[in-house]
Each structure stands twice: as structure tokens, then as C-alpha cells.
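Q: Structure for this?
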Amino acid sequence: MPEPTVPEPMTDDPIPEPTTETRLAEHAAIDRLAADLLPALVAKLGATGLGEIEVREGPWRVRLRRPADARTQARRGDRPSRGQASHTGHGRAPATIDGSRSARTVAGTSHSGNGSTPAGSEPPAIRQDPHRAVATSPAVGLYRPRPDLPVGSRVRGGDRLGTVDMLGIPQPVVAPVDGILGGSLAESGDAVEYGQELVVIELAGPAER
Amino acid sequence: MFQKILIANRGEIALRILRACRQLGVRSVVAYSEADRDSLPVQLADEAICIGPADAKRSYLSAPALISAAVVTGCDAVHPGYGFLSEDEGFAEVVRAHDLTFIGPPPNVLERFASKEGTRRLLAAHGLPTIPGSDGLLRDDLHALQEADRIGYPVLIKPSAGGGGKGMRMVRSPRELESAIKVCRSEAKAAFGDDSLYLEKWLEDNRHIEVQVAIDRYGHGVHLGERDCSVQRRHQKILEEAPSPALSPAERTELCETAVRAIVAAGYENVGTLEFLVDRDGNPYFIEINCRIQVEHPVSEMLTGIDLVATQIRIAAGEPLGFSQADVELRGHAIELRINAEDPEHDFRPGAGVVERYIAPGGPGIRMDSHLQPGYEVPPFYDSLLGKLIAWGPDRATAIERAKGALDELVIDGLVTNVAIHQALLGSEPFLEGRMTTSLLDRVGSAAFLAAASRA
């Protein structure tokens, strides 16, 4: 599937021999798209905060995506940069399948004992540990750790340790400090919530300092 | 019916939706921001998920965060509550694009009623009275004078562009009109770069009366009576009651039946509210529709015994309404007091802080919808509503007495609240005599109400 960075109408299905009438109709359709639909879609894209909007009408399909250069600023993950595979054709099927499995993880890990103790009313133990720090989830979505970073790897503050996929839009999980990659607190594919602790970072010991 | 509903809101309405879900036997997930981690809806939830930081733009107003939360927790519907994204047709559309149901009107219906001006024209065409105005924009002074004569003084001069009161003037005579129109044109030109004006009839001493409707997908619609929301401070409702002391039974029936007929004909679906201004002579004028559950919905629930939030969910799930107008019985009188964290002594400045002590009132006819609990820290990021105290009685006098007694029982220590203004209102002559109009509190001043109460 083509990946236009500017919106353009695409003909997906084979179109029979174009006659003068169909050509005229196409021209009219393009005019209408440019005049009416595009401004409305641009406004919607801005208003919803989504990364991408796709509209289908007959043989026409218009897909609008935010420019990639906004990525550096937006932590909120307003655009799909690489998550195309899971997003194609409203492709949420993988997310949904994963989601129903890992939804229990959310309920189980971060909200066990939810009824009696409010979640998070006590600071997590790891955050109080002077020898450890923890990387947290930047969004609600599905967790994907970087496969090329085994436990014991040296990381620097700001390094990307993985992503959280929010509706196909990857949000970076970032190391908060320099240190050694410790244990993982969530599995790949788990549904995670905003702020959830994902990866332990062992700080350099006093001897090393 | 749905399997699982994401509650995309906070505070008392999140709790209210949670209770409706339990009533229907549907599981739910409370979506919360970091600032609401310890809140009562999160504690009472079947399941809860943190969607973002305190900043509403990145949590309760973030469509991607809310929808992602719904998807990963396996929800098949999203309840938006009120405020935030509850009437955002773009959000409703995106929810649907992810195979989830938006609990409210379907996106195409929300879109049809998105423009206030368009809705007024649509419902006027279906027989609702609207505020009389000039036929289009004013061409020149002569045209303005002719139109004002036709509408009847006083009239309001309004700029076609913009809002916020700029370029707006109320005039009572042709002479005033002639001089004001020049001022308005230059003000509008300066503020909006467009000096086109139009006229609208000025309604003095109006009341705000709204009709609650519920319409299913199959076009069966009922009204649940009206609510009188005339007690307002700077256009914010603070006390609502039903039935309206300003309507006779015949006027009530006429207003409610006209409203439900028009809105069914216009193709509305789900619960909604039609707002009217009612002038001194009892003439109603339709102003706008609210396509969501409203803060003051309990007033109608107390009168009818119908759970409006459950009804909203059932309609969104495609169920028929299941009752007819004849089944809707309006019993007794109900008053709702909005309890806000704001200081009536200091221009209703909103406050935040920790609730040191909280005692909810009770007794016959009393309902307290609130997310407060002792030790709860009211976050400064959201609106100041702490809860709603609703009093029902077989008649208005009993409801007022019960509301007063409940206010005396209510204890919220640690925060400044607006309880004093409610005590003052419930004892004031204009309220007791049913004479409140939307501008009265601002005109007389809340200070005068408070002072009168302390003298009594």
C-alpha cells in the first residue's frame, strides 16, 4: 500500500475502462475532496489528537497523516511513524487480540487489591531504592521492549528501551538515568497503563562512582 | 448489551456511570488521570486504568489514550459522561472507527446537532419556537429600524462574527438603536474584522427551563418532564428543580410534548436535553440542545424513578426504550444543589485542598451524588464540582425543608464550599416564591443573598 505523506485519493479497486462520463465524475470527485473533505479532515485530525485519519467512499480513499517532524516534540504520540503494519485497514485486530489477553495483566499487576487499597497510594518500593531507578510507561497501550538490549546492558539516561504502542503509534520508553539494565517488570505484548513501571535500571554502585 | 464499558470521565459522574453499569450487570473500567489515582471511582471500580498525567489534554481529553485504554482492556463501549469529549462528534467517530460504541447519540446525529445555529433552524422547521430576530443581516439603518419595529423593542444588536459580548448592545427605542448601531459596527469591525450585525429580541427576566427526552433507535421518544435551571451565577447553573414553579400543568404538557415531537421528527437518538428561555409572559424559546447526560439529570430521576444513565446505555446498545409516555409519571418535587469547591465570600473563587472530614446527609428523599471521602485531595486541575445534593418531597415546600435539613447535616471540612449560598437561596423570598430568573443572582448580588440570610 502506498504511504502518501500528503493526502491523495487512491483507487484501490480496478476501475473499468474510463469513459468521458466517469472521467468527469472523477474530476468532480477530486474537486469535492479538495474543497470540502480535506479541510474538514485537517480540522478533525487536529481536534482528535490522532496520528492518522482514513476515510473511504466508493473507490476513493483519503488518508491524512501528521508530518513526521512533529514527532520529536510530541510525547503524546500523535502520529504513526512505523506502526503502519498494525494500523493498515483499521488494523486493530492484533491489538485487540493481544489486548484481551493482557487486559488481565493490567487488572492483575497494577490494580491487585484495588478494592481495599487505592492503587498507587503508596510509592512503589523501587522508586525509594537508592540503588535503582525505573523506566515507566509513557502511555496506555501495548508494551514492546527492545529485543537487542539484554539484562546487564549499559544504558544512558534518555536511551530508548522500548515502546508502548498506543493504537499503533509507538511511544518511546526512555531510561531515566545512566545505569545497567535490570529486570523487566512487564512482558512484551502486555497491556500497560500510563506511568506503569516497566524496566529496572541498576545505578552505578558507590565503588564505581 | 455491552460486555464491558470504559468510563471516560472522573468525579461524581464516573461513580454514577459505574453504578449504572452495576445495575445493568455490565462490567466497567474506570479510566483515570494520575491526579485521580486515589479517587473514589477508581477505588470502587471493577477495573481501573491510568491513561495519562493530570493535564486533561493528555488524559480525559486525549482520544488516543482513551481509545487505547478501551482496546487493551477489552471494552466494547465508551461512556463519555459530561464535559470533556462528551459532545465531540470527532471523538464519537473515532470511537466507532475502532469498533467501539460511543454511549450517546451516534456520530452522524451528533454532527447534525453540532451547530447551534443549524440546530435552531432545524428545530424551528419542526415547530419549535425560537427567539425572534432580524431577517438576515442588517443592510442599513433603515432596514435595522424596520426589523426592530417588526420584532418589538427591546432588541439586542449582535455581531454576526465572534462572541464574548463585544459589539453587543441592548436598545429600547429607535433613537437608541440609531446611535448604538454605529458603535456596534465599529466595535465588531475592530474585534472581528467584520462589521455585519443582526437583531434578536431581548428577553427580560427570563427563566431557563429544559426538557429531558429519551429516544431509542426505532424512533420511540418520551419526555421526562422539565427542569427549571433559572438559579444561575454568570450563566452557570447552581440549583435546579422540577417541576418548574413558573409553568402551569397545561403549559408544562404543551412545552414537553412540543419538544419531544420536534426532536423525534428531527431524527435525534438517545437521551438529550432541549433548553428553552421562557419570557415573563410564559413564552418559551428554544435555544440549544445538549446531546449528553447532564449534571442535573438526578432531578428527573427523582420525579420519574427512571435511571437515565442506564437508559442511555440501553439505547446505545440498540435496545428499545421499553416504556411509553403513559408510563412516565412525574411525582412530587425535586431540588438539586450543586456543591462546589468555591468561595461565595470571594467572588466564587475555586479552591482545592484536602477534605479533612466528610459527612454525607441522609434521610427520606435525600440523595447525595459525590465522589468525596475523608482524606481526599481535591485536585486543582478540573472543575470545582464536589457533588450534588438532591432532595425529593411530595411537594415543593417539603423538598425545600428536606434540602435545608440535608445542608445542615452535610459536613465538608478542609475546603471552602458554596454551601452558604445554597442556605441563603433556600431561605430567600425570590426562591421561595418561585420568582428566580437567570439574571437575578448576578443583578442583586450573591452578597445580598448571603447578608439577608445572616439577618434572618
